[in-house]
Amino acid sequence: MGAGAVGGYFGARLATAGNEVHFIARGPHLEAIRQRGLLVRNPDGEFAIKPARATDDPSTVGEVDLVLFTVKATGTREAAVAMRPLLGPHTAVLCLQNGVENEDVITEVVGVGRVIPGVAYVGAEVTEPGVVTHTALGRIALGERSGEVSERVREIAKVFEDAGIHASISTDITSAKWRKLVWNAAFNPITALTGQTVFEALQDDDVRELGHATMREVIAVAQALGLAVSEDDVPKGENVRTQKAMSKTSMLQDVERGRPTEIEALCGAVVRAGHRVGVPTPISAALRALVRAKEARSRAPAPEG
């Protein structure tokens, strides 16, 4: 559900392993997949899913075993409503979105017990309609909110492993999601504002320190929530030469293309949680305000004349 960069990459990998995969997409990307299939490029070469089952209407698919929910956080509620025809009595919804609040929104729409929180660790971008360019990593973590290692989580993890995708089962998936948020809430907005890749941001002493200060703020909120998140869990500069550090963040891509960003799902979530637990979040609030302003400017029509 949302076969863009992340959904397209994982869906394609699952399809090559022999699973029946339906790609829910829209616009030129959908038309390209319908006409030419879905092409995945990576540093080692490329592979294609051709023909690919693709549609913008979930009701034409019918009930499925598993939904990979990978839409942008800005479209969570709308996509959750749209996917209702996919849900049978035992359908699970694996949420691989950025942010820490999406599962609650999806649950409000589809009911308690369906949603499994997950974390996607992957660098990917839709570089042209029907083409996903994979730049780094390609693994997931998933787990029940209760911490139970359920049979459905084991089965889903095995499906991914059989497709060559490492899938770790977490007994504390909420902390895992916040550990990713620590990095995302810092370097996604910072790179969107500066136009830098993570590599470039980490080479800039002032920008790097801003990123680290933001991460410390998010960690303080997570710890106040009682989560297992510490500075030891967070990469700062040691990954500076990885392909992920050299690629553009998703928020920078969104700003460059005039699309809505996930700033509310990242810095907005930190500000809201900080307010609940009494932890000040001035840096996150400032980044949110600045990205909102930049987003509005990038989406505004050019002046006439």
Question: Would you kindly provide a written description of the structure presented here, covering whatever features stand out?
Answer:
With 305 residues, the chain is of the alpha/beta class. The chain folds into 2 domains: 5-171, 3-Layer(aba) Sandwich (Rossmann fold); 175-299, Orthogonal Bundle (N-(1-d-carboxylethyl)-l-norvaline Dehydrogenase, domain 2). It has helices at 5-16, 27-36, 76-82, 102-110, 151-162, 173-194, 198-203, 205-224, 243-246, 250-256, 263-277, 282-299, and strands at residues 22-24, 38-42, 45-49, 53-55, 64-69, 87-95, 115-128, 131-142, 167-169. The strands form 2 sheets. Strands 2, 3, 5, 6, 7, 8 and 9 form a 7-stranded mixed sheet that branches. A hairpin with a 2-residue loop joins strand 2 and strand 3 (45-49).
Q: Strands, helices and their partners?
A:
Elements: H1 5-16, E1 22-24, H2 27-36, E2 38-42, E3 45-49, E4 53-55, E5 64-69, H3 76-82, E6 87-95, H4 102-110, E7 115-128, E8 131-142, H5 151-162, E9 167-169, H6 173-194, H7 198-203, H8 205-224, H9 243-246, H10 250-256, H11 263-277, H12 282-299
Largest sheet: 7 strands, mixed
Number of separate domains: 2
Tally of separate helices: 12
Shape: globular
Strand content: 15-25%
User: What percent of the residues sit in helical stretches (DSSP H or I)?
Assistant: 40-55%
In the CATH scheme, the class of the largest domain would be: Alpha Beta
Assign the CATH topology of the largest domain. Rossmann fold
Low-confidence spans:
none
> Which architecture of the largest domain does the CATH hierarchy give at level 2?
3-Layer(aba) Sandwich
Number of strands: 9
Give helix and strand order, one letter per element, not per position: HEHEEEEHEHEEHEHHHHHHH
Average pLDDT score? 93
Query: How far apart are the termini?
Result: 41 Å
Evaluate the radius of gyration.
19 Å
